[in-house]
Amino acid sequence: MRILITNDDGIAAPGLEVMTAIATELAGPSGEVWTVAPAFEQSGVAHCISYTHPMLIAQLGERRYAAEGSPADCVLAGLHDVMVKCPPDLVLSGVNRGNNSAENALYSGTIGGAMEAALQGLPAFALSQYMGPANFADDNPFDAAAVHGAEVIRKVLAAMPARTEDYRLFYNVNFPPVPAAGVKGVRVVRQGFRRGTSFGVEPHASPSGKRFLWIKGGEQHVPTDPGTDAHANLHGFISVTPMRADLTAHDALDALRTIE
């Protein structure tokens, strides 16, 4: 198997090393792992692409590249430049430091990379490691993802439905905020919603008196409804959420047809 990996935390991120190990296990002795990752951190860029300006790309080693762009840019670079003569069978994005459960999925560059791969017709996974008191200060806070990542991907690949839609499925996988030994299992769940918390801004003044705003995330340990991703994660389970890039609210179509 030939695998392309990317992330949004940047080419030097520890989570990318974990993803490389996961991909190497999946690819097997005769497989290949190619990396095209952002040269700098791109957290929060979602599915952004560098449509209005070019991006620099540099080879750092064998099958290892850094691009000055978003995760979606990196997938495009991998498919249409770096690996154009040897396309991948699978695209993996992550392992993100921090969860991409619930509404975080809408902002996530990690998910943006997997989404772009799906739009390009390839099976793709976004992997993220929830952080919390039980793993944040560990020597390897990515332990749950490192130990269980390859197995989860294998199981999903074996079970995933045949492609029937133009918008191909991709998979959002979040590992709970516990060491690997504390993982209770896997739950296939829908995307949740954290009520009463959201992104916002925090104003600060520079020494020269200019006003700056920091984007500030909400509380991450607010439980979502049972049967959803963050609820599963906060109860010790790996969450697997099938997603696609079709943004249509299908449940609202019939009601709105009264205006036709």
TrEMBL record:
Record note on cofactor: Binds 1 divalent metal cation per subunit.
GO molecular function terms noted in the UniProt entry: 3'-nucleotidase activity
UniProt cross-references to InterPro entries, sorted A to Z: SurE, SurE-like_Pase/nucleotidase, SurE-like_sf
Positions that bind a divalent metal cation: D8, D9, S43, N96
Key words, A-Z: Cytoplasm, Hydrolase, Metal-binding, Nucleotide-binding
Compartments where found: Cytoplasm
Annotated EC: 3.1.3.5
Co-factor requirement: a divalent metal cation
Catalytic activity: a ribonucleoside 5'-phosphate + H2O = a ribonucleoside + phosphate
Survival protein SurE-like phosphatase/nucleotidase domain span: 3-195
Family: Belongs to the SurE nucleotidase family.
Protein name: 5'-nucleotidase SurE
Lineage, opening ranks: Bacteria, Pseudomonadati, Pseudomonadota, Alphaproteobacteria, Rhodobacterales
Gene name for this UniProt entry: surE
